[in-house]
Amino acid sequence: MSIGIKHTYTLGEAAELLSCHKETIRRAIKDGNLQAAKLGRGYRVSRVDLEAFWQAQGGGVLFEKVEQQAVEPEPEPELVETKPKKPRGPEQLTLPT
Asked: What is the value of pTM for the model shown?
């Protein structure tokens, strides 16, 4: 299981992803157009079912394909010695008018 990728969505989250009202998602579930699991008083829609429903409605790719890649840590930057800055005197403040 990969970390950071959400696999199930509530009605509200699914509606937000599809830019519609959550009642529209609820109707699609009741009509059998969208598969969902009932948990308590709410529903959970899987990522796969949500994307299949979206594409069946004429939508494009809903989720970008995330490929597993080995991420190598960036090397730490080398410390470069710099000359200490000379202290500066007080600066003139300008107030907005």
From this structure: 0.59
